[in-house]
Amino acid sequence: MKKIKVLTDFLEPNDAVARQNREIFKKHRVLVLNLMSSPGAGKTLILEKTIEKLKKGFKFAVIEGDVATSNDAKRLARYNIPVVQITTESFGGACHLDASMVKEAMQGLAFSSIQILFIENIGNLICPAEFDLGEDKKVIVLSLTEGEDKPSKYPVVFRNADLLLINKIDLLPQLDVNLNLILKNTKKVNPQLSSVMLSAKTEQGFKKWLNWLVREYKSKSKLI
Amino acid sequence: MKSFLESVRKTVMHEMAVADSVAKIVQDKMKESGEKGTIRRINLKVGKLTCVEPEALRLSFKVLSKHTPLENASLVIDSIAITAVCRDCKKKLLLKEMDFTCPHCGSFRMEIKTGRELLVESFEID
């Protein structure tokens, strides 16, 4: 038997496409955020409220990843922004988006009139973690009802994230959940991860998230 | 539209996407090397700080490589432990759980040394 050395990263084919995506985003100065969470954590409502509050100042677009339906895309299209849907049902339901799917979806968007692009990943805390899409920042949404141990159970996604949004904070008085323990478990896997506690429903804490977003956009577009 | 759906098909399960990527890397290298033999083994390094499950990867590869030049190849997966160095007390650590707190000084400032690998190391032909 003859041995041939390779030494290539498996994710290289995906990362190569992600780099192409990143170049296109950079050229157009579009801030791109990859939103990840479990199903039902509140990604879509967070997006709806964000767009509603900032649409006078910013031009948004959304790439919406979903296994089976276009429900979320329909919710977002009400805000008169470009929404491109990626649905994966007919092939058994892809568990994450990858860079080539995003590249394909990007063809449906006019980047000259977009400032902030959200990529709403498929609700899943495992698979999306490894796949670079070309985004600037990864934002993870964790809702209070999911309990304290999610950062310990799904460390890779928390380790790779740039911002943690702890959603449904309005439910804190009704739940037995220990918020400090969530923060402690998060810190164990990613000490640098900053977090914002908010409720997309009551809008408590929402301003802090919007400030973060505006700051990120300004640094991307070199306005500061 | 067809090429888009084809790209979706490749990602039904993420180990499937990873297996596809491994196959592509090996076939490209084979072409580049000009070798003509049958590929028998593919040696991979998979860190424990990744979302790749070795058994799911093996199964995906088996399904995907059927009726291709790689169908006689088996995956040999070397699972790499998570090791780190504490930036504060400088001690070397082997992490059994994904807890990035230093057991010696309580610091969170860890530098991960190994555990993130997702590497096609080599393949063997005869």
Task: Give a quick summary of the entry.
The complex is a heterodimer of chains A (224) and B (126). With 224 residues, chain A is α/β, with parallel strands linked by helices. Chain A contains 8 helices and 8 strands; from the N terminus they run βαβαβαβαββααβαβα.
Characterization of the model:
- The complex is a heterodimer of chains A (224) and B (126).
- By secondary structure, chain A is α/β, with parallel strands linked by helices.
- Chain A has one domain: Rossmann fold (3-Layer(aba) Sandwich), CATH 3.40.50.
- Chain A is 36% helix and 21% strand.
- Chain A is built from 8 helices and 8 strands; from the N terminus they run βαβαβαβαββααβαβα.
- Chain A has a 7-stranded parallel beta sheet, with helices on both faces.
- In chain A, α3 links the parallel β3 and β4 (83-87).
- In chain A, α1 packs parallel to α4 (99-106).
- The model of chain A has no long low-confidence stretch (mean pLDDT 91).
- In chain B, the strands form 2 sheets. In chain B, strands 2-1-6 form a 3-stranded mixed beta sheet, with helices on one face. Chain B has a 3-stranded antiparallel beta sheet with strand order 4-3-5, with no helix packed on it.
- Chain B has one domain (2-125): hypothetical protein PF0899 fold (2-Layer Sandwich).
- Chain B has 3 helices and 6 strands.
- Helices cover 32% and strands 30% of the residues of chain B.
- By secondary structure, chain B is of the alpha+beta class.
- At the A-B interface, β1, α1, α4, α6 and α7 of A face α1, α2, β1 and β6 of B.
